[in-house]
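[Primary structure, fold]
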Amino acid sequence: MYNTYEFYRGTLIIGCRFIFVFAVLINKVSLQETVHREGVIGGSVLLPCSSTKHDLKLQDTDVSWRHNDSEIVFDIVKGEYSVAEQDHRYKNRVETFPLEYERGNFSIKLTDLTHTDAGDFNCLIRPSNEQKTVQLIIKGV
C-alpha cells in the first residue's frame, strides 16, 4: 500500500524535477537577448551584438546577421567579414568594425535607413550559440 509519506515524497521529487527543468530552460532563454533601437529615415543606427564568451577564437567563429529571420544582412565567417550572400537591399549600407572582433564585438552600423528596415535583426554567434535580437523602429523625419 501507498502510505502518506511515500505520496508526499513522490510529489516532492516530481516538484523538484520540474523546478530543475524550468531553471535550465530559463538559462537557455537568457542566452537570447532583445534590445530596442530607433532610427530615422535616411539616418543610421548601430545594431549591437557582443559575445559574453571571453575565449573566442576568431578562426572558429561565425556570425550571422539576419533581418526578420530571412534576409542576409551580413556574415562573418572564420573571423572575416563576407558579403558574398548579402541581400541586395543591404549592399553598401552595412559598416562593421573588424578591430572589435577580437573583443567579441560584432556590432554593425546600418546606414541610409528606410521604412522597410523596421523589424527584428538577429545576430547569431557560433559556436557559442549566442543570439541577440535588435528590434528596430523607424520614425519619419
About this structure: Residues 18-30 have pLDDT under 50 and may be disordered. The chain is about 20% helix and 35% strand. Strands lie at 32-40, 45-47, 62-67, 71-77, 80-82, 94-96, 108-110, 119-126, 130-139. Helices lie at 4-30.
